[in-house]
Amino acid sequence: MQLDNMGHLMHRLRSFLSALRPTRLAVLFGVLIGLGVGFWCWGQPPRPRAVLENVGLGSQVHLAPDGRSLAIWSGEDFSHYSLALWNGQTGEKKFDLYKGHWGRFCGLGFSADGKMVACRFYDQICLWDVDKGLQRATYHDQDGVDYPEVVFSPAGKLLVMREKNVLWDVAANRLEKKLVLDGERVITNGDHSLLVVGKGELVKIWDLANTVLCRECRIPNHPWQRVSISPDRAFLFSHNEGVIYELATGKTREIEKQELSRVPLAPDWKTVAVQGHWSSGSRSESWWGMFTKWLGIQGEDQGPCVTLHAFPTGEEICVLKNCTAPVFSPDSRTLAVAGSDGISLQLWDLPIRKPIGKILGLATLAAAATLLTFNILGRFRRRRIKTPVTPLPQ
After folding, report:
1. Contact, 341 vs 352, CB < 8 A?
2. Is residue 117 within 8 Å of residue 71, measured between CB atoms?
3. Nearest-angstrom CA–CA distance, 354 and 146
4. Which residues of the chain have pLDDT under 70?
């Protein structure tokens, strides 16, 4: 039965195609129109996944682990602040968690499943439900101004750093782990990590969420200024020196592009987002942009931009124009950038690629529409020139 239906469908399709009877001129124009549409679509700049409007001035953006939700802290002036949750897929505001005069914002963290968010302020910690926007708990906090770290354990336990660098269980109000011993000092924190240097150049890396010492080694003669920890805690990157340290073997590797040592890395260490200024003479401009400007179609375009580079090779990936302040999601699949107007936010899917399927689909649709138009015009023309047949007289 299914084979009969399929055969009947194919017969109808063949009949429809044969009825079109496209001429060579129609086929040529269809191919040209399809190619033109394809090249035009390819020359268009990439588009963000979502645009968030009116997020507020002086915004600090924090993305959930999966990038589907984000919390934005903003302050219109020095006395009015707000914290809001936004949908990372549609760009719509979900909830206003707070508006008021709390003052100094210290830190924020999402749970591993993205369902809870905790915000640390000057003297308190607040916990909210992401799906419903309801405040679940408020805790007094005496050390928020000095320790911004806020993490959730895999079991959902809320942990923060407190005085003397101890990890504190907020809900139980008890000491969870002492991380820094006498004679040791904290160098930097990373993706739920803490880098500690002790005597004799001993280096320790703590996993804050799981409260375990995940790596311990020695790195001699290091200045310990501006250091990043890789998510797998296997590498250190010295921003000032432009050097990667492999902790397991002690080997080092210098970065070819020294200017990349001054910018933040994506959590997966595959991409860096360099903030700069773009102009019409930039070497990053596409051939389509140069061609349209040569024709006089596109005007001179200048402004701030964010350039994505592959790490550590420094190869340029793409340029995002009229945006600043790049922030990566914890899974490195989403990039948030502030618009040049200062009050909007763009969300980009990473890696940024050309939508090949969409471009081919639009080109095919344009070619098919051209063929159909030529066929309809040809039929009308044949009907107009067709002469009626009159019977001969008897």
Report:
1. no
2. yes
3. 44
4. 1-22, 57-58, 76-79, 101-103, 255-263, 278-302, 382-394
The string of pLDDT tens digits covering residues 155-210 is 899 999 998 889 999 999 999 999 988 888 888 877 788 888 887 778 889 999 99
Residues 6+ apart with CB under 8 A from 81: 73, 74, 75, 98, 99, 100, 101, 102, 103, 105
The pLDDT of residue 280: 47
Burial track 173-192 (b if 16+ CB lie within 10 A, e otherwise): eeebeebbeeeeebbbbbbb
| CATH architecture for the domain at 180-254 | Beta Barrel (2.40)
Q: What is the pLDDT of residue 171?
A: 92
Tokens for 155?
A: 């079991």
pLDDT in tens, 82-95: 889 999 888 899 99
Bridge-based pairing state of the strands 316-321 and 303-310: antiparallel
CA distance 216 to 33: 63
CATH of the structural domain 57-178, one choice from 2.130.10.10, 3.40.50.10090, 1.10.150.240, 3.60.15.10: 2.130.10.10
Handedness of CA 51, 54, 58, 61 (dihedral sign): negative
Q: Residue 158 in contact with residue 110, Cβ under 8 Å? A: no
Q: Dig out the tokens for 248 from the structure.
A: 């397991």
306, 337 contact by CB (below 8 A)? yes
Instruction: Report the C-alpha dihedral over residues 251, 316, 269, 155, rounded to 10 degrees.
Output: 180
288 three-state secondary structure: helix
Task: Confirm if 141 and 121 have CB atoms less than 8 A apart.
Answer: yes
